Input
Amino acid sequence: MKHLWAPWRMSYIGAAKSPAGCVFCDAVTGTDDRRHLVLLRRAQAFLILNLYPYAAGHVMAVLNRHVGALTDVTPGEMSDLMQLVTIAITAITAEYRAEGFNVGINQGRVAGAGILDHLHVHVVPRWNGDNNFMSVVGDARVIPESPETTFDRLKGRLVG
Output
């Protein structure tokens, strides 16, 4: 069996050991949305760029509350979370002309969660013939723009 390694993720994953060191909790309480790459906030959730994206435009809808299980999410939190997913899909489609999306939650370490105990939904744009999962199969990641450029492009598409 061949092993594929993604060592660049360890600094990101390692920062999320407890609520005090959770990158998402830091973004909740932070006041500089650009520094934290927070695109949009709702009462119980927010939309943030993925610092290690699989594709340009890869965002995450994240709960404000530090909770790790989908079964512990309140109806209001779920509503804000899914509204942000829908808003993200609309903005990414308009700005990047995405032809499809992978939308998903990795709950628990064995499911692939890099940040445990702070629930978030990945929204990954896809295009016909894309190679945005190269990091899994080819040990390479091709992202055509910086997180700051992605932030600026999507921020202009998000309303309310």
In short: The radius of gyration is 15 Å. Residues 17-155 form a domain with the HIT family, subunit A fold (CATH 3.30.428.10).
